[in-house]
Amino acid sequence: MIKMTIVSFLCLEVKIVPKVSHEYVKEKKKSILEAAIGVCKVKPLYDISMRDIIKASGVSQGGIYRYYSDLDEILIEVINQVNVNADYKHIIDEITDTSNSPTKTIIKLFNFLGEYMKENVSTVGKIQFELTILFANNPDREKKILSSIYENESGQYFMQQIFHSIDKGISSGCFQLEISIEDLSTFIMTSIDGIVRDVVLQKCYGVFSNDQVQFDEIRLMNTLCKSVLLLLGSKEGED
């Protein structure tokens, strides 16, 4: 009788435990994700551990695994959140729709990219840079993470619109290309990659901090734009 009473009591206890609502789980995961993004801002992505996120979120070690199966699942959500915030195709469309010449379109696109980089270097720039290091040293994790992240095509779309404007300028006689279109494409992409890399290294890691030069994303993109226009046989401000 006593044994049955204890069993009955335990069963009753299980029944009255409140169920965790979907909204509660959503808010808890959001809180953990925000903590993880904060960790990513101050620590290299490839050096982050689950313990770092547990400490930042205030969730216990046992508790965090109720919401995420492992560290990579959290990082995937961080990267996807950053990619959503980094979607700027609508801004590119606004620039191309309102510019009245290929030259002005190219100038405005490079100006926008410089401003965007300046605002997002500590998040988008840093995480994208560190992903390349993480993947280089962990090919298994690369496969797992890449299969689950949402691809952000804003950078590709930016290049498409740059070259659409170039083609338009060539067709109208506004541009006289000094080099092959393939060489120009390589020059632009490698220059942007180099600017992003060096700005991230300086502003996020303190590299080049002993040098006199302080990298400014807007000025660097402005210089790149002028170089591109010179290679197109155009001058800044021409229609």
Describe the structure.
The chain has 239 residues and is mainly α. It has 11 helices and no strands. Helix 7 packs across helix 8 (139-146). It is elongated. It starts with a helix and ends in an 8-residue tail after the last helix. Residues 6-17 have low confidence and may be disordered.
Q: How are the SSEs ordered, and which strands pair?
A:
Blueprint: H1 2-16, H2 22-42, H3 50-57, H4 61-64, H5 71-85, H6 89-98, H7 102-137, H8 139-146, H9 154-171, H10 181-205, H11 217-231
Helix pairs in contact: 2-3, 2-5, 5-8, 6-7, 7-8, 7-9, 7-10, 7-11, 10-11
In brief, what are we looking at here?
The protein has 239 residues and is mostly helical. The chain contains eleven helices and no strands.
SSE series? HHHHHHHHHHH
Quote the average pLDDT.
86
Uncertain stretches of 5 or more adjacent residues: 6-17
How much of the sequence is in beta strands?
under 5%
Properties at a glance:
single chain, 239 residues, mainly alpha, 11 helices
